[in-house]
Design brief:
Elements lengths: L2 H22 L6 H27 L1
Length: 58
């Protein structure tokens, strides 16, 4: 794996973990919970795109 891909995946995983921490520390459906949930979804979409593009380029 290339160095840039490793750094990108690591950054996405860290953002997902931060989103989980934010979402788990607040009540359901508050503004902070929504931000955490959005970070989680965005991170998962980012990882999905990276994997998809990695498969397409192979």
């Amino acid at each position: 794996m290339s160095k840039n891909l490793t750094i990108t995946i690591l950054a996405l995983v860290i953002s997902i973990l931060v989103g989980i921490v934010i979402a788990s520390n607040y009540s359901w459906f508050t503004q902070e919970w929504s931000i955490g949930f959005g970070i989680i979804i965005g991170g998962l979409v980012g990882i999905g795109l990276v994997i998809y593009l990695k498969i397409i380029r192979k």
